[in-house]
Amino acid sequence: MQDHAVVSRDEWLKARVALLEREKAFNRERDALSRERQSLPWVEVSKDYAFDTDAGRKSLSDLFGGHSQLIVYHFMYGPDWEAGCKSCSFLADSFDRSVVHLAARDVRLVAASRAPLATLNAFKKRMGWSFDWVSSLGSDFNYDFDVSFSKEAREDGSIRYNYRPSTFPADEAPGASVFYKDADGKVYHTYSTYARGLDMLIACYHFLDLVPKGRDEDGLPYTMDWIRLRDEYGKA
């Protein structure tokens, strides 16, 4: 950073205005991409999925909670894991303050994981979260939406992740899936995103993209290696 260009205020303004034009073009392209995303065809969800919730056993339809749109964040937390994924936790730290705003736009946000509900609730308490988190343990939900992988799939190389054949270093992966429920109660899968597609949900990354060092992840073993659970920063 010591070798970074230092210029006059007038030169800085000229460079900033040039960048502003590129930012505006990017925003217009992003708006167009969002409209294309919203125009994707839908698939009716006919399989019965059941989830353990604090209010008892619920179906996918029940998770809408009176709204017509549902976002399910696929939180990496396997049945025998000691803690939730630190990267998913990094993302989920912004959920609580979003829930009320999303509800005002007819959207319910929940997280789903294969860990037992009691395990999820204990970790949720540790992290100080209040968003709805349900257990999909015993359901095909995670497997059908390509965020959980059987031992056989990992061994024989038949994993599909992010819409292509893939390998993955764990039996759980992150993602987000979107559903719509019509007036007749039919549920449709409208969208899912994985991997870098989740960047748009990570508020902290967007702040880091504003500062001179950016995300500062070059040279790390993997991009999110620096992330810790919120109560573990500063520990050895």
What does it look like?
By secondary structure, the chain is α+β, with helices and mostly antiparallel strands. The strands form 3 sheets. It has a 6-stranded mixed β-sheet. Strands 2-3 form a two-stranded antiparallel ribbon. The chain has 7 helices and 10 strands. Helices cover 31% and strands 19% of the residues. It has 2 domains: 39 residues; 159 residues, Glutaredoxin. The longest helix is centred in the first third of the chain and has 30 residues. The model has no long low-confidence stretch (mean pLDDT 96). It is globular, with a radius of gyration of 20 Å. Helix 4 links the parallel strand 5 and strand 6. The two termini are 27 Å apart.
The gist of it:
This protein has 2 domains: 1-39; 43-201, Glutaredoxin (3-Layer(aba) Sandwich), CATH 3.40.30.10. It has 7 helices and 10 strands.
Oligomer: single chain
The share of residues in extended strands comes to: 15-25%
Largest sheet: 6 strands, mixed
Described by the principal axes of the CA atoms, the overall outline is globular
CATH homologous superfamily (4th level) name of the largest domain: Glutaredoxin
Number of helices: 7
Domains counted in the coordinates: how many?
A: 2
CATH classification class of the largest domain: Alpha Beta
> What series of H and E elements makes up the topology?
HEEEEHHEHEHHEEEEH
Global structural class: alpha+beta
Task: State the helical fraction.
Answer: 25-40%
Trace the largest sheet across and list its strands.
Answer: 1-10-9-4-5-6
Write down how many β-strands occur, each being a DSSP E stretch of 2 or more residues.
10
Taking the alpha carbons of the first and last residues, their distance comes to: 27 Å
Taking pLDDT < 50 over at least 5 consecutive residues as the criterion, the unreliable ranges are none
CATH architecture of the largest domain: 3-Layer(aba) Sandwich
- CATH fold-level topology of the largest domain: Glutaredoxin
The value of Rg in angstroms is: 20 Å
What value does the average pLDDT take?
A: 96
Protein name: Thioredoxin family protein
Organism: Hoeflea poritis
